[in-house]
Amino acid sequence: MRTHTPRRLLGTLAVVCALTLSATACGSDASDGASGATGPKDVAAALAKGGKVTVWAWEPTLKKVVEDFEKKYPKVDVELVNAGTGDKQYTALQNAMAAGSGAPDVAQIEYYALGQFTIGKSVEDLAPYGARKHATSFTPGPWNAVHQDASIYALPMDSGPMAFFYNKKVFDKHHIEVPTTWDEYVEAARTLHKADPKAYITNDTGDAGATTSLIWQAGGHPYKTRGTDVTIDFTDEGSRTYTATWQKLLDEKLVAPVTSWSDAWYKGLADGSIATLSIGAWMPANLSSGVPTASGDWRVAPLPQWKAGARASAENGGSSLAVPKAAKNKELAYAFTEFATTGAGAAGRVAQGAFPATRADLESKAFLDAEFPYFGGQKANRIFAESARNVVADWNYLPYQVYANSVFNDTVGKAYVSATKLDAGLKAWQQVSVKYGADQGFTVNK
Q1: Residue ranges of domains in the chain, CATH in brackets
Q2: Is the CA virtual torsion 423, 428, 431, 436 positive or negative?
Q3: Is the dihedral of CA 38, 44, 49, 55 positive or negative?
Q4: CA 122 to CA 115: how far, in whole Å?
Q5: Which of 59, 154, 302, 376 has the smallest count of CB within 10 Å of its CB?
Q6: Residues 6+ apart with CB under 8 A from 25
Q7: pTM recorded for the entire structure
Q8: What is the largest CA-CA distance in the chain?
Q9: Is 440 within 8 Å of 154 (Cβ atoms)?
Q10: Residue 132 in 3-state DSSP?
């Protein structure tokens, strides 16, 4: 195994499907993509023959996966490259695909970003390689994100079902009950900030992922996509449910004006001035490493509900492994992708702290009974697993969600620093996203 980080990332984010979204430029449909593909038997033959596979990924648990894969298949050499995260990797990946050279054999792609690669036909349909047999292996949220009709464009690597992380020490001090609804959450925010003006229920300076996840949980469907036909509507019921509640927090200045992942954010989580987080199940490792002094203070509970008695959840984060069309060794690439996301590969990653997308790992007794010293010995995985089962179905991202998220703070973000209301900010975000989509050749409805 070899790992390295490239010194330079190429260019700026390429538009979807390079220059145009026409059928000619983007390639054939999913059924055509399968016609010339090879099958599982060729994967076995490729493993026997050996070769080199280049993997672009940032997830640290893959280092051990690479070691285990090479041990099992000694004729295969895997080069693990950290090409950056988020926009940086996607820029480099799009540029390599457009240039026709330099693309990896396997790429880690977050679920929200996968659409821009599938719409451009720049990633392989993995169904002909045997991926269909894994249809029931993964939890609903991640599986829904990687397949469309009969095509499977990636295999889920991890997931981020949401949960409610709260500082029990702070809640106990101010006699605050753990909220089970978002209305109760607002009341808890008021109680906390009145008792201690330096303490806030949470922080928020505007975050696209958090906003869309909570709209998702509320049953919203602001994005609808079918091929190059896109509908964007932030006036739907789920979006309005979210803004009606969250606007109260902003109007009453009940959220800390602190940016997530900043030094001030970690300090707030440590000293109790930021008392809760509604975030993905991957958060425990970040709390343990980033806020060690608060060990024992925090607990986990189910996400508050928009309707009393409901059990809805949503995903927040998570990524997949895909095989680019430009991959030089697609059979070996699929073999590595399958190994890393299922069976022993997936179990090994979970053992290192990754949150599983696989049902087998999510339902295992060892996983469910694991105690978290950071959360006072709580068996938090039981809450995360329940959340994964309750993710609201049929959520869609835009085929150009990476771009949309990049302009979130220029639109919705104004609601956090001015008199602009959240619903007006979402309308502005919608307008910018509609214009961009139309400029790129999509048929966009609003």
Answers
A1: 2-159+318-362 (3.40.190.10), 162-314+371-445 (3.40.190.10)
A2: negative
A3: positive
A4: 10
A5: 376
A6: 17, 18, 19
A7: 0.85
A8: 68
A9: no
A10: helix
Dump pLDDT digits (tens) for 110-127.
999 999 899 888 999 999
Strand 106-110, strand 51-56: pairing: parallel
Nearest to 340 by CA among 84, 127, 107: 107
Q: What are phi and psi of 45, to 5 degrees?
A: -65, -40
Give the residues across from 181 on adjacent strands: 305
State the first-to-last Cα distance of the chain, in angstroms, to the nearest integer. 49
348-381 pLDDT tens trace: 999 888 899 999 999 999 999 999 999 999 999 9
Distance in angstroms (rounded) separating the CA atoms of residues 166 and 300? 6
Sequence-distant (6+) residues with CB within 8 A of 431 are 446
Alpha-carbon distance values, 330 to 108, 140, 302, 417 (Å):
15, 26, 41, 48
